[in-house]
Design goal:
CATH architecture of the largest domain: 3-Layer(aba) Sandwich
CATH superfamily of the largest domain: Gcn5-related N-acetyltransferase (GNAT)
Oligomer: single chain
Bound molecules: coenzyme A
Shape: elongated
């Protein structure tokens, strides 16, 4: 390790437009190597034929991976190799323009005797919505919560008008336990229901 950074970072670029950020990341991350597709010859340290198989091999070999691509591609590529969360390398997805496209956080829903149920929060930049970032973040967070020993996950306040979120959580196994009548004061729609959503892990 160099300070807090591992020395075996693989910066993986998927297309020709990711090269600019890829090279900046290689410069910023000492000892890192730039991996790019053989079909777009560039200043790659290593080139690959098939992205998913290559990313999977890198992960299996213990490389920290910074992918200049959608989070979903990385998650699907490393999923077959996930085994020991606390020992496996970090995997980070960055957008081609270097922007943060979404965030997720995980915490106990309550303290003390309620701390075995997780709660989580998600936010995706509207400019990157509808591209699978929210689903990938949620699937990853559910996996983390399970690995951390939580028994269930609960969302205490999902506005019923947030139909994209409600449908996404339902597709991931959450059910609506109850709806607080007029529990949310929507700026345009007035007083609307507020769902409590829950799933076992
Ligand atoms: C909820 C949220 C995290 C979803 O993130 P996202 O990256 O857009 O979600 P995904 O791209 O993974 O899409 C999930 C599903 O919603 C659908 N979807 C996403 N945006 C949509 C839209 N504007 N209209 C219709 N459907 C939409 C997608 O088609 C996808 O469905 P599918 O997987 O069945 O094809 C995001 O909308 C958000 O940040 N909202 C504001 C904050 C928020 O509401 N957080 C949750 C509070 S409970």
């Amino acid at each position: 390790m160099t300070g807090l950074l591992p020395e075996d970072i693989a910066v993986v670029v998927l297309g020709p437009t990711g090269g600019v950020l890829g090279r900046r990341l290689r410069t910023a991350l000492p000892g890192s190597r730039l991996h790019g597709p053989r079909t777009y010859p560039d200043d790659w340290d290593e080139s690959y034929e098939r992205a998913a198989a290559h990313i999977g091999r890198l992960f299996e070999a213990g490389h920290t991976i910074v992918g200049v691509c959608a989070a979903g591609i990385l998650i699907r590529s490393v999923a077959p190799f996930l085994a020991k969360k606390r020992e496996e390398p970090a995997v980070v997805a960055v957008a081609e323009d270097g922007a943060v496209v979404g965030t997720a956080e995980l915490h106990p829903n309550l303290g003390g005797p309620g701390a075995h149920i997780a709660n989580a929060g998600f936010m995706v930049d509207p400019a990157h919505a509808g591209r699978g970032v929210g689903r990938a973040l949620a699937e990853h967070t559910i996996g983390l919560a399970r690995a951390d020993g939580y028994r269930a996950m609960q969302f205490n306040a999902v506005a019923s008008t947030n139909t994209v979120a409600v449908a996404l959580w339902q597709s991931l196994g959450f059910e609506i336990l109850a709806t607080v009548p007029e529990g949310f004061h929507h700026p345009d729609k007035g007083y609307v229901g507020l769902h409590i959503m829950y799933r076992r892990l």
